[in-house]
Prior knowledge:
The chain is α/β, with parallel strands linked by helices. A seven-stranded parallel sheet has the order 3-2-1-4-5-6-7, sandwiched between helices. Helix 1 packs across helix 7. The termini are far apart.
Amino acid sequence: MATGTVQKLPRKVAAVTGANRGLGRAIALELAREGYAVVAGTRVMENARDLEAEIGRIGGEATAVECDVTEYVKVERFIGAAVDTYGRLDVLVNNAAIIEPMTLLRESDPSEWELSIKTNLLGVYYGCRAALPVFESLGGGVIVNVSSGAAHRPMLRWSAYCSGKAAVAMLTQCIALETRGTGIRAYGFQPAVVATDMQRKIRSRYVNEVSNLPADQLLDPAVPARVIVRLCEMAPEDLNGQNLTIRDPELLRRLGLESLMR
């Protein structure tokens, strides 16, 4: 769907970064099933065109937009595409992330370390920076920053990834503090270990204990995607700014997703 033209306005609109595969793709599909028009940000447009078609087959609406989260101008254009195409924006899911470099800090390539921070931290900041004025003008909105257990404990050979995710956890709290009373909600969400290309890369060589997790402990991406979308729908005020985890049974009960605990 081309940007620049306002279509018949959907009930809700969501923007998802890193939407062409893995967890991002699952989130985009679940949002579409719940009635959201989805703006799918991706660096690989060919895969995102497939996502557009798949969402169309289930009766949803989607627009793929090229988005390299390491460049603010492209992220700003991505957020602008939601408003230009659909007239509004209700949800932003900052999902795009990279795991490299997976090495000891003393052996790390500074350029790879920098790229990790640009992607995993600045990419989230850019998304929030571009979306917040839109949300403020519309009287509210929801941000979900996909997090990790690595945000809260050190992991061997993941210094860049842990540092970026830890910073995003604090960024999420700052957003909640700054926007209190505006109708904006911001959450961090840990999806646990999900069967994605990133996990296959981790499991392909030993870097830390995550590499040795049995395959049957990896979640299908559709499972955390359901939780993220329900969180966006319910947007509980008392959880604003918190870093939540799919492993919290009380959270799943609150969201009406007790069946996921079985």
